[in-house]
Amino acid sequence: MLGVVTGIGVVLAVLGAAMVALNLFVFSHTYNPSWWDDDVPVLETFVPASSSEIDELSVLSSVPGVLFLLAMCFICTGRVLRGGVGIALAQGPARGTVVSANTYLSPRAHLAWLGVALAFWIVLIPVPVILSLGGGWPVTVSDATRDQVWVNLVLYGGLAAAIAGTLLVSHHKKQHYLALAAADNLRLDEPQREIWRWLTFRWRFDLWLGGIGGAFVGASFSALAYDHPATLVILLAIGIVLMVLGVLLARQYWRAELPLGLAESYS
């Protein structure tokens, strides 16, 4: 049963990726006749559509996001249920929590998933930016739908970069903690500090900072296609700062005095 739950999530994720590809194909081959330059011949692969029809098609841009959200729900639920789930009845802010214990990914598997996320980001943002700077797709797309092409590229390329940022900070968090444990560092014997338990264990603010920072960094490169270097610098700087803060916070996980592989939700 648990494999079925996770499997449904994987299928939904694959459908989401396929939907992104479909969106890019549809918007790259649709044009509004009233916007088309009469001096430019219409390619046979292009399909005419009115402004209202193009607006209706724009709804397609949100479909992959819904599929990815549902996929995350199924995959995370299957992952949590695969481990030991119980209720921790404690005093103070920690009372009434649902705790799950799971094995964590090996460093090699962790880096492999990081590579997958980076590959999706490269395909969705750097490659189209480079092509557009050379006068290729998506510059060749009709003016009426070019913005929708970039919406899909930046939205889901930024999502891939956010996942990569989260995985990067998570990998550093795990490796730093394991290094302290392997060295029998005396800091691991210090009393638990509730604030660090709250920040780095229950709510994983370090990973949130890494994900948001990764999204800013990943999306920033799309500004090059619009010749906005200032936007690139601003978004890149914000992303780097957030990711650095995420790494610094992740390095404090040992203060929570909890082993890797645990998770909890307040209820």
Features:
7% strand, two-stranded parallel sheet, 63% helix, 9 helices, 267 residues
Q: In short, what is this structure?
A:
This protein is mainly alpha-helical. The protein has helices at 2-28, 51-57, 63-82, 107-124, 126-133, 143-182, 194-202, 205-220, 229-250; strands spanning 30-31, 47-48, 84-88, 97-101, 262-266.
Mind explaining what this structure looks like?
It is a single chain. With 267 residues, this protein is mainly alpha-helical. The chain has 9 helices and 5 strands. The strands form 2 sheets. A 3-stranded antiparallel sheet has the order 3-4-5. Strands 1-2 form a two-stranded parallel sheet. The radius of gyration is 22 Å and the shape is elongated. The mean pLDDT is 87.
Average per-residue pLDDT, rounded, comes to: 87
Q: Which class best fits the helix and strand makeup? A: mainly alpha
The total strand number stands at: 5
Percent range of helical residues: 55-70%
Overall shape:
elongated
Largest sheet, described in full? Answer: 3 strands, antiparallel
What is the straight-line distance between the termini?
A: 25 Å
Strand order, main sheet: write it out: 3-4-5
The radius of gyration over CA amounts to: 22 Å
- Please trace the helix and strand order, writing H or E for each element: HEEHHEEHHHHHHE
